[in-house]
Design a protein that fits this description.
The chain is α+β, with helices and mostly antiparallel strands and about 350 residues long. The protein is about 60% helix and about 15% strand. It contains nine helices and seven strands. It has a five-stranded mixed beta sheet. Strands 1-3 form a two-stranded antiparallel ribbon. β6 (about 320-325) and β7 form a beta hairpin. α2 (about 30-70) packs parallel to α4 (about 85-140), α5 runs parallel beside α9 (about 305-315) and α6 packs parallel to α7. The longest helix has about 55 residues, at about 85-140.
């Protein structure tokens, strides 16, 4: 309700009340009309002045500050900016909206705090495990209690593997940090995705054979598939996804790679027939160090950052990645790439 309407209603009620009281004692319609008119005018002017000076002006100032500060302006700029025609109504809406936004921000901060605690706990565990293992093997060798050269060599080999694991973790953390901060500059260029997929399959073939998993990229993919992206980074995405499918695939299983031509994008799918993922875990799958099965994941190895790196690389390309999975049947990771200009069919 606007100020003039509010003042008029109050003045009208007071004037009508006095006019009725006057008529009750005088019984004269002329006095009733005169009392009503004079009282209405005087009350309207007095009420308008008092409310405007001592109440309304303060509400307008509060509204201006809320409205302008919400837009990101500093205090000096906010004091001389926007004025509403109906600040009493608008300030209520502004405060409600502001409260809603702040509640969302507070909830987000709580989630971030929880994520930070989990992240610190996970990284502490991931760093301590290989460090303690290396420390144990070295201390055993320093004690000179091992006289068997073959046993000593086994200890050194195990220590070396844990150092490699530690080095991989640090390298992946460095990659995540650079991707998040924008330090990594993408080297966009046009390249044949089909050729790159075949190269990655050849690179991962031995690891897949060791797990008795077949990598499939059907013969129909002989036609060049031109995309515009950072070739090295997309190669890393494919390696991480295929490596993940091998780790969690089943013995004598299959990992297949497929591509689909969309209008201005290429869709790539990496599908396995492994153990699958429970639906409740899917929203958190790309978080750093998140594991659906802690014990099995650490037996398999890896830094726990592979999928997080994949997501960051694709987001840097302004592309998306999705996952669909059925527990016991397998999983499919699908991501898009920008189709190179000039590669569209005529």
């Amino acid at each position: 309700m606007k100020l003039r309407e509010l003042v008029f209603i109050n003045a009208f009620v007071v004037a009508l009340t006095l006019a009725i009281v006057n008529y009750y004692f005088q019984g004269n319609l002329y006095d009733l009309a005169l009392t009503f008119g004079v009282t209405l005018v005087i009350c309207y002017l007095v009420f308008y002045y008092l409310i405007e000076k001592y109440i309304y002006s303060k509400i307008k100032l509060i509204y201006k500050l809320i409205h302008n500060l919400k837009l990101g302006k500093d205090l000096k700029d906010a004091l001389g900016e926007y004025v509403s025609d109906d600040p009493i109504h608008d300030v209520e809406n502004e405060v409600k909206e502001w409260a809603r936004v702040k509640k969302i921000e507070i909830d987000a901060l709580k989630n971030q705090e929880q994520f930070r605690r989990e992240f610190l706990g996970n990284i502490s565990h991931e760093l301590k495990t290989p460090l303690f293992a290396v420390q144990g093997y070295i201390e055993a060798l320093q004690d000179e209690a091992i006289e068997d050269p073959e046993l000593a060599k086994q200890f050194l080999d195990k220590a070396s593997k844990n150092i490699e694991r530690l080095s991989l973790l640090i390298s992946d953390l460095d990659s995540i940090s650079k991707l998040e901060s924008g330090e990594v500059k993408l080297n966009y260029k046009k390249f044949d995705l089909t050729v790159m997929i075949k190269e990655v399959i050849e690179q991962m073939e031995l690891k897949a054979q060791a797990q008795k998993i077949q990598l499939v990229f059907k013969d129909k993919y002989q036609v060049p598939t031109w995309v515009n992206a950072d070739r090295d980074k997309i190669c890393q995405v494919l390696i991480n996804l295929i490596d993940n499918s091998i780790k969690y695939g089943k013995e004598n299983g299959t990992t297949s790679i497929k591509t689909f031509v969309l209008h201005d994008q290429i869709l790539v799918e990496v599908t396995d027939d492994g153990s699958g993922i429970e639906e409740k875990y899917l929203p958190r799958l790309f978080e750093r160090f998140f594991r659906t099965d802690q014990s099995r994941s650490r037996q398999i190895g890896g830094s726990g950052l592979g999928l997080a790196i994949v997501k960051h690389i694709l987001e840097a390309h302004q592309q998306t990645i999705t996952v669909r999975s059925t527990e016991g049947l397998g999983s499919t990771f699908a991501f898009t790439l920008a189709r190179a200009k000039g590669s569209f069919p005529i």
